[in-house]
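Each field is set out as follows.
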Amino acid sequence: MTVIAYIVLGIYTIALSYITVYCLMQFNLLYYYKRGKRNNAEANAPVRKGVKSPQLAYAGNEPGDFVDPPLTNVDEEQEYPFVTVQLPIFNEMYVIERLIDSVMQFDYPKDRFEVHILDDSIDETVAVTQAKVKEYQAQGFQIEQICREKRQGFKAGALKEGMKYAKGEFLAIFDADFLPRRDFLKKTIPFFQDEKVGVVQTRWEHINEDYSLITRLQALQLNVHFTVEQTGRMNGNHMLQFNGTAGVWRRKAIEDAGGWEADTLTEDLDLSIRAQLKGWKINFLEEVGSPAELPVEMNSLKSQQFRWMKGGAETAKKMLPTVWKSDLSLTQKIFTTSHLLASSIFVFVFITGVISVPLLFFLGDLIELGFSKHFFAYFLVGLLSIVAVYYVANVQAVPEKSADFTKSVYKFITLFPLFLALSMGLSLHNTVAVIEGFRGKKSPFVRTPKFNIKTLRDSITSKKYLNQKLTWSTIMEGFLALYFLGAVLGGIYLQNTTFIVFHGMLCLGYGAIFFFTLRDFSLRS
């Protein structure tokens, strides 16, 4: 029994150590994020013609080095480079019209951009899109609907096919759930005057953040990626990523990196790494926001998470050998590895949770053998690090969020524990995705349904696009909620409260995922 107790303790410690190291690396990104903010403030760069934001661009030499943003004389029409706006869609009847309307409002010369709707739809979307295209063609816009016979390669295949028809030197890409602002092109294209810049990525904003608890918690997490993570990596001279939408590619960078490939579910991350290994830079513009719709029901969220986590694992398996054979510095290789393995954190969260229950019952024996449960206190540094990262991203980072500081702090204190619980509750679902990714099990690109949900007055009134299948993992999530409820009761019975908060959050997380999943199924019946 003693041997088993030490094995359980060893597994728990290894998993917790992995989580702690991950959190500390996130804290390192926070350091570079704050350092970059200080450098920007000290530089106090003036706003110049052609660039609406005073944000500085990373020079790409040493961490923390910045230069003025590249300038374009927007008063002279001939200096506008030609841009192809690509809208890859599949069955988006609820949102395609608003996407097209938003893009056609760009305050960019009408003859200097074209819009290609890469339409793989097999439903009413085709006709809806066709009508919109004719409407804007009649107004003199360069807009086309491009349909393929077979949806081969899914989104990556559509973008690859679309390259054959694109005339632009630069390619702006938007998913169907986005509502880009009128000045998007004028705020992004000037940064390409730096010939080394291959991608300009903007920050995602959330048009329906306050719709529900689920959307608020998603926004909490995404705000970290689109502030601390992306900017921190840029400031630290580490690899960034194009996020699949709300960004612009230099055509030459795509071609030089080998083009779009459909062998992973995260074709955006894959191409980003390949392009940067070829020497191209990604410029992230935190101050330029692109509004988008968040998934409002649990099954859509889980579908999105599965694609992101599995695709991340597939890309890690594909690209890590190349990264370690490259000429990158050791530090860059380590941070790129951490970046590509980010989805694996859920595997260790799942292991930590499950193994902590038997550990609870072995603790008495281990303490008698001289083990101190205060040993676990050392790992609190990881929790404190991640609290700091999320606090900065959601309270300090985004200008509009800081208008009411007290309200922002209260919102963060209220939501962050719930976010941790929900993340723990998703760990089984995401672990399955990661394992499938590393095993090489292929699955189709399942896009996240969008329903034009912007305010509390909107609701999902149709079953169309919604998954009707209850999976085995959902049943297991319900079982795990009971498993951790038993652990809480067991801790009370043993008068050992070491894990009671942890187990309580796991019970809440798995229970919430199980409840919301079943609730969303019941709403469709």
Summary: Residues 45-75 have pLDDT under 50 and may be disordered.
